[in-house]
Amino acid sequence: MNTQLLLIQVFNGLVNGAFYALLSLGLAVIFGMLRIVNFMHGALYMLGAFAAFALGQLLGLGFWPSLILAPLLVGLLGVVLERGLLSRLYGLEPSYNLLLTFGLTLLTQDLVKQVMLSRFAVSSAPYSPPEVLSGVVNLGFVVFPKYRLFVIALSLVVCLVTWFVIEKTRVGAIIRASTENPVVTRAFGINVSGWVTGVFAVGAALAGLAGVLAAPIYSVEPYMGAELIITTFAVVVIGGMGSILGSVVTGFAVGVLAAVGAAVYPPIANTLVFILMALVLLVRPSGLFGLPEGAR
Amino acid sequence: MSAVSKLGATRDPARVTRAAWLIGLGIILLALPHLIYPVLALDILAWGLFAVAFDLLFGFSGLLSFGHAAFWGTSAYLTAYLLGHGQSVPVAIAGGTLSALALAVPVAYLSVRSSGIYFSMITLAFAQMVSFLALQWTDLTGGENGLQGFARPSFLGLDFSDAQVRYYVCLALFTLGFGVAYRAVRSPFGQAQQAVRDSEQRAQSVGYNPARFKFTAFLLSAGLAGLAGAMYTFGHGVVSLEVVNWRTSGEVVMMTLLGGTTTLFGPVIGAGIVLLLRDVLTTANLPVGIVTGVVFVLVVLFFRRGVVGTLEHWLRRR
């Protein structure tokens, strides 16, 4: 295989990896802090893309306002979900969160499908990147679409900021305290349930952001999150469930590995992540960056 | 105690309830293909056994497998493949079931070391591997097109082109599978049964056993899911990628929850309700996913005991 082709694959892998990283980061934040396994994450990603599309169709909003507004809307939906539904399941096994969000996924996907068909008369719609980001960049050794480079860069920045806030700041400490010992934390005058809702909203907004970013690359359709969420779950298991760093690093790594693997042997592209997961589990059942289950 | 005196002091009321369920379910299942379209009735048997198999693991071991479609689907494909290559119906069904069992050995080995939500994720990922394999391995699975038009040669004078005949053959297989599950659930706790009425406690006491028990329970569950998958292929005469999709894994969870976990009869009834509901919705051209999703959410939020669980709970309190 020639070097140029390999480099293109590496870049494409980084683009996919950017989405894996953003999505698994959101899942890791929600699971790590709240012990909620949010199966709906893929549907929230799709809702982000759909919101960008709908805002453009109905209000004539372009990519940039949507990039801010759509994640906000998805985050707001996250607040409603957490307050209205998920909070009723606290104290039960996390399995019930998984099941509830699975049901919500079925519901959301078909609801969006109905809306797209009845309101916009399409079941799948293309979405153009903004003018500034269309075209290609010549990196010297390889020519690459501008928009895809932007996706990689923005995802990296967002992941870094999230990691920093949670691991290094007072906000992160408050969140951890709120979830590890709610009673004591409340005694310090901290609004625990408010923080819990906030964390869920931020995780949801991250999925929404990934959705807006994905719209110009994969086009908008109701089931766009369905297969992606499963791959993301595998990424989270490989990285170690709930590990922020693990989800980001593994997200990008899996993206690149799968793309390079596909260049060597195409049929393996979609399976590689699951093979990888089985191998990791054999050696380290708690994932690459995860703590052993007992230590939690 | 009042329930005991009403039913007679020497009788165990739980046992009477179980007998009533057995007889009731038996009568319904015998009459079913005369009440509804026989292929739909057969679907209820196959999915019902699938749900029972799932519940063996979830309800009685506390392990939420989110990848049971792997066993159902593998068996469904292999049964179709064997039938397509001139094998007789019993050989194809046995082959399909065994293939699910064989797949379960490595999957169970790797997954029962984890528990809780980790277990769910891992089973889901293994099921996805099977799903991608089914998509890629077109020689065996037909890829996107699936497999259809395979023969179901007559056996012992039974004409399998008749849907009613197929139904009663599957009813026999269902009874066999259900019997295995029933015995498995009863046998280790025969003595403790009187004391442990609360099903949740029973599940916990099962989960308390070491990994070897979980491994055995996983194999048993996967094998029964395989038998159910073989019945599905035999009944429909068509297999598509849908059988290995993650939505299939989720649907069997829903059927089990709706009917009632740890009740054994519940999953069958749950399967019946979901399939009949879906049949009505499709015929009326209503959005299946929206309604199924709403039902799922409501069950998880407000109705976790399920139909049979709620009924039994209500009967016990009376």
Descriptors:
heterodimer, A: 296 residues, mainly alpha, 11 helices, 2 strands, globular, B: 318 residues, two-stranded antiparallel ribbon, 14 helices, disordered N terminus
Q: Which percent band covers the strand fraction of chain B?
A: under 5%
Total helical segments of chain B: 14
Radius of gyration of chain B: 19 Å
* Overall morphology of chain B: globular
Description:
The complex is a heterodimer of chains A (about 300) and B (about 325). With about 300 residues, chain A is mostly helical. Helices cover about 70% and strands about 0% of the residues of chain A. Chain A has 11 helices and 2 strands. Chain A has helices at about 5-35, 40-60, 65-85, 95-120, 145-170, 170-180, 180-185, 190-220, 225-240, 245-265, 270-285; strands spanning about 135-140, 145. A two-stranded antiparallel sheet of chain A has the order 1-2. In chain A, helix 2 (about 40-60) runs parallel beside helix 4, helix 2 crosses helix 8 and helix 9 (about 225-240) packs parallel to helix 11 (about 270-285). Chain A is globular, with a radius of gyration of 19 Å. The model of chain A has no long low-confidence stretch (mean pLDDT about 85). A two-stranded antiparallel ribbon of chain B has the order 1-2. Chain B starts with a helix and ends with a helix. Chain B has about 325 residues and is an all-alpha fold. Chain B is about 75% helix and about 0% strand. Chain B contains 14 helices and 2 strands; from the N terminus they run αααααααβαααβαααα. In chain B, helix 3 packs parallel to helix 8. Chain B has helices spanning about 1-5, 15-35, 40-60, 70-85, 90-110, 115-135, 140, 165-185, 200-205, 210-235, 245-260, 265-285, 290-300, 305-315, and strands at about 145-150, 240. The interface of A and B includes residues 110, 234, 270 and 275 of A.
